[in-house]
Specification:
The complex is a heterodimer.
Chain A (H helix, E strand, L loop, with lengths): L1 H9 L3 H28 L6 H24 L11 E7 L7 E4 L6 E11 L3 E8 L6 E7 L1 H12 L6 E5 L2 E4 L10 E8 L1 H13 L2
Antiparallel strand pairs in A: 1-3, 1-6, 2-3, 4-5, 5-8, 6-7
Chain B lengths: L17 H23 L3 H16 L9 H29 L11 H7 L4 H8 L2 H12 L4 H8 L3 H26 L1
Classes of the chains: A alpha+beta, B mainly alpha.
Chain lengths: 205, 183
């Protein structure tokens, strides 16, 4: 046993080859991101089979949503939640509507046009947040939603975008890159609250 | 929906594009993946290719990868081992249908040359199936406890112990054979 361990350690190539990673890191990262961007540019449904599967998934989700609605009278009541993403500005201007961001003293100024709403949600998912015991809700957009998000955010980098839940601005992050596929709604949600929000977003479609 | 009231207070609040998500995965985990990849492959280039292919698979749907350092790491390590296993299987099929390619001095020659400087135990390690190879590396070189390896690879601790025992048995056999040859 010790012979194996000692020989493995003695001839371990890693210590000598760590520098190779240092040299290749930037290039490797660039290639990975480039590949990711080329995937983003591909049509969402890459084949007939993929398209059919996507349709099947949406239909299943819709049917499941209907079942939850039917049962909601006697079990846990889940209300539909109105979801909107709108572009916003940090400074007032004509035609913009002031709105305060929940949980802060910040005021932003909303554009009237709604970029995406519940109808542009393909699916939602609850995931563990970085804060232990807290959850986030990931919202994945439909192909139309992706197109709208991409078009709206492309010219808005460095400025805020607002996520509204039932008309209240819950998040207004500054755009750092074009957003197309999905949004992540982070909040100090318990899993139950996050599940309720995710369900409400789906019901609101 | 009490959670809304504190939503904006979180520093990570916001939206992430595919590129941002992938970039953050790369920054957080590429070194860890390279450490494993370099020990699982025969050269720096092979290791970098393996890391790149792992992230390319992640790029297909980076938001589907569970959030959090440990779940992300486990997801990526499993993909890395699977990528290596796919390559290993393809190579096995090639050897089966074109046996002459596997003969010494044929197609493997450049790789064999690169192995000369490595000890026989590393040569034997490279011949283990990828998951077993990963288990031996994680236990013997990274000194991870068995339960941690099990969590990382998504299999039971019993399976890990079985792979570890079989892998070490094979490596010990190789060392014993080498000693016999020297006598």
């Amino acid at each position: 046993m010790n012979d194996v361990h000692e020989q493995l350690r003695r001839d371990d190539p890693l210590p000598g080859d760590l520098r190779a990673l240092e040299a290749a890191r930037a290039e490797l990262r660039r290639k990975v991101i480039e590949r990711s961007s080329s995937l983003s540019a591909e049509p969402p449904a890459r084949s007939r089979r993929a398209a059919l599967l996507a349709i099947a998934a949406v239909l299943t989700a819709t049917i499941a949503g209907g079942v939850v609605s039917m049962w909601s009278g006697s079990a846990t009541v889940v209300a539909a939640v109105r979801f909107e993403v709108r572009l916003a500005e940090d400074a007032p201007a004509e035609g913009l509507t002031p709105a305060s961001v929940e949980g802060s003293t910040r005021t932003i100024y909303l554009h009237d046009e709604v970029v995406v709403t519940n109808g542009h949600i393909l699916r939602t998912r609850v995931a563990e947040d970085m804060t232990p015991g807290r959850c986030r809700v990931e919202v994945v957009f439909t192909p139309e939603g992706r197109t709208r998000m991409q078009a709206a955010t492309a010219g808005h980098i460095g400025r805020p975008v607002a996520i509204l839940i039932d008309g209240r601005v819950v998040l207004a992050p500054t755009l750092r890159a074009v957003i197309a596929e999905s949004a992540v709604i982070t909040g100090s949600y318990t899993r139950e609250e996050a599940e309720r929000l995710a369900e409400g977003l789906r019901l609101g479609r | 929906m009490d959670g809304h009231s504190s939503a904006a207070a979180l520093p990570i609040a916001g939206m992430a594009s595919r590129e941002e998500r992938l970039g953050s995965l790369f920054d957080a985990h590429h070194e860890r993946l390279y450490r494993l990849a370099r020990r699982m492959t025969r050269s720096v280039d092979d290791a970098l290719d393996l890391v790149q292919e792992t992230f390319v698979r992640a790029a297909r749907d980076p938001h589907a990868i569970p959030y959090g350092t440990a779940p992300e790491e486990a997801w990526l390590v499993r993909v890395l081992v699977n990528v290596q296993r796919d390559a290993w299987r393809r190579a096995a099929v090639r050897r089966r249908f074109a046996p002459r390619l596997a003969e010494p001095g044929a197609a493997e020659a450049p790789q064999e040359a690169a192995l000369i400087a490595r000890s026989v135990v590393w040569h034997a390690l490279a011949s283990l199936p990828p998951r077993r190879r990963a288990v031996v590396i994680l236990r013997e070189l990274e000194a991870l406890p068995v339960p941690e390896i099990a969590a990382l690879l998504g299999v039971s601790a019993i399976t890990i112990r079985w792979h570890l025992a079989a892998g070490l048995r094979r490596l010990r056999q190789v060392i014993a054979d080498q000693r016999e040859d020297r006598k």
